[in-house]
Design goal:
257 residues, mainly alpha, two-stranded antiparallel ribbon, 2 strands
Length: 257
């Protein structure tokens, strides 16, 4: 009677899942669910693993309009991928949070999580309870944070050499070597230009103008304003030095009334 009642409850649960979404695959086996989640994490990590390092391979993305993009930036790849699996979506959000806070390390985050779950699956197959593995992750996190407190090195925001090294490390995994050397100095000088004492840096004060008719190695830093509008009349001069700049908050466009 107990077995029959348990079997009926399980069948009812499976039926309820199928009623919510008839096309869904009802997974009521705990081991099967863990294997599916682990496989999703390892599959996403396998896609991002080849991006890491200066020798990482480029990925070609084609959108619905036929626009082609070549990149190995993990943040851009995750934003462009249509991820359906809940576990993979959770990992993608963790990588997005990493990019928002630090600005780098998205691919490393995905690969690290995938490797953790890969190692965890080995212990799951040996009969270790998932709760023990989760507690082990918490202990490892506490030990890692404790070690980082002793390993970290104090640095000053005025140390340009340190800023250049940090920028080069981040850019070397995303662009070629020649372009990395050029952009490193540009990025550091741009941040130092807008930096103010005791004021948080607003990255929106640095604007990136894309010129599709030029190459990446032609990138320049303009310490000022770039108004990519062109002259309003063909007789206007194309170059003016020591000019006066008039700014106003009103529209100067002529409108017929």
């Amino acid at each position: 009677g107990i077995n029959a009642e348990y079997g009926g409850t399980r069948a009812t649960m499976k039926s309820a899942l199928q009623m919510i979404n008839p096309n869904a695959d009802a997974v009521t086996n705990k081991g099967q669910a863990l294997a599916i989640n682990t496989a999703a994490a390892q599959g996403l990590a396998g896609v991002m693993r080849s991006n890491i390092g200066p020798t990482g391979t480029m990925k070609m993305l084609v959108d619905g309009a036929g626009e082609i993009t070549l990149t190995k930036d993990g943040s851009h790849l995750l934003a462009s991928m249509q991820i359906m699996h809940p576990t993979a979506q959770l990992i993608s959000r963790a990588a997005a949070a990493q990019d928002d806070v630090v600005g780098d390390g998205t691919s490393s985050t995905v690969v690290f999580i995938g490797e953790l779950l890969k190692q965890a699956s080995r212990y799951l197959t040996e009969g270790v309870h998932p709760r023990l593995i989760a507690d082990g992750f918490d202990v490892a996190k506490a030990l890692a944070l404790e070690y980082l407190e002793t390993f970290k090195v104090a640095a000053s925001a005025n140390d340009r050499e340190m800023l250049v090294s940090a920028a080069r490390t981040a850019l070397s995994t995303k662009v070629s070597g020649d372009l990395c050397d050029l952009l490193t100095d540009i990025v550091v000088d741009a941040i130092l230009t807008i930096r103010q004492e005791d004021v948080p840096i607003d990255a929106h004060m640095v604007e990136i103008q894309c010129m599709k008719h030029r190459l990446g190695v032609d990138t320049k830093l303009i310490r000022g304003l770039v108004l990519d509008h062109g002259p309003r009349h063909p007789d206007m001069p194309s170059r003016v030095e020591n000019a006066f700049i008039f700014t106003c908050s009103l529209e100067m466009e002529y409108e017929k009334t």
